[in-house]
Amino acid sequence: MTSEYSEKLKDPHWQRKRLEIIERDEWTCQICFDSESTLVVHHRRYLSNTEPWDYPDELLVTLCEDCHEVERSERHGNEEDLLSMLRTNFFADDIHTFATGFYEMKLLHSHEIVASAYEWALSNPDIQRELIERYLYQLKGNIHAEG
After folding, report:
1. What is the distance in angstroms between the CA of the first residue and the CA of the last residue of the chain?
2. How far apart are CA 107 and CA 64, in angstroms?
3. Which of 18, 85, 98, 111 is 20 to 30 A from 129, comparing alpha carbons?
């Protein structure tokens, strides 16, 4: 990160925008749902000639520091892998169809996805049993660690 960009992140305009995004995301990392670690606002992509605080809200997301580092370090390689796979296996019209589908797809807020996953998991007795066993195992470990 350049020192000029670092200075922009101290600007009151960015601090206000950052707070709005973190509040929108309910003070929770949108990848791992951590609400205890330090949170940062991540730019999903960069726009030329745009100040950090002038980005549309949909290009900003709250992440914990660990998830932010993974996103920054692994995203480019993963995008290159995806692009290679698309070029190898699909034609231009196929890729356009995928892009249109993603653009028009209604993405649920991550909390809605988690709630839906819990609903599904709790409707299955085998999964219920596994979750309870994991919880009890973790609880037992915490009791031993405290004692």
Report:
1. 45
2. 21
3. 111
